[in-house]
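Subgroup meeting minutes
Present: P.N., E.W., G.H.
Scribe: E.W.

1. P.N. recapped why we're keeping a running log of single-chain structure predictions: easier to compare across weeks, and new members can see raw inputs and outputs side by side.
2. G.H. added today's entry (342 aa).
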Amino acid sequence: MKKKRLKAIDFFCSGGGMSYGMKQAGIDVIAGIDFDPDVKETYEKNVGAKFIERDVFKFKEIELYELTGIEKNDDDLILIGCSPCQYWSIINTKKDKAEKSKDLLKEFHRFVKYYNPGFVVVENVPGLEKKADESGLNEFVKDLKVRGYEVNYNIYKLNEYGVPQTRKRFSLIATRINNKMISPEKADYKPVVNDFIGVHNGFPEVKAGHKDKTEFMHTVAGLSKENLEVLKNTPKNGGNSVKKRKFWKGSGFKDSYSRMSWDKPAPTITTKFFSISNGRFAHPNENRAISLREGATLQTFPKNYVFYTKSIQATARMIGNAVPPEFARRIGKAILDSLKTK
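Output recorded in log:
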């Protein structure tokens, strides 16, 4: 018998972290959908799949068939929904700006009900589960079970799955193909910063404000004289800033102006990882924040993944918003493994 090839469509795809990981697992990614036209080039050139620019609130279910040719009730289809998660994040974001994003799971649910795919994947912040009624998660799970899906979801510590961060994520995998509970497999070890960045990993020493005009993008944000002095007086390899309290007054990020540790996982790589004032994003040894490429590498993007953006902020936003490709690969592999017969 000819081996079946699973195919996937990635809603809220951004720069392609989830899609790339799924592709690495051996899944055929047909298309990614996002309302941001600035991610199109990055997505298409790295993932090699079609980019569909749509606002999901205005996107009709039948349009997806017209654009991709997918059919209803396709056992080999995976629909993926990794919606922007600022509204449900525990990080202190302005909720009024993120208000519209709180209903994205409900919009994704429309397409799941219409196409009834063989598999469904949802990835988001843990807050999605903590407020399961308000986020639409309870209704989503209930509907999947009523229609015969086996649903498994959990909060995963990504450091246990090959990602060198303390990052925690909510992930759901559902299937109506069989009654197997699908979960990604843990890695053999818990990676740390030293496994991914540093001169020994191909990252030359650079100074704050360094501009790398190559596709490697070892670009670093500049520092004021005052902040540079703060870093110079911060102990290497995990040190906390002795002058931090001058800047931190009970709000914001308590680990700001502090260094990563070589022998520990990095903190969660956020969209502001290029700034030492937004978390423990200072290099373990050098007097600077981590570079764009170092942030991408700690997110498990390969070094040849090119980000086609116009600013440090835009690049960091794309990297920080991404599903780490290694975790996505493990989700894809778990889905493929679930189809194997013993």
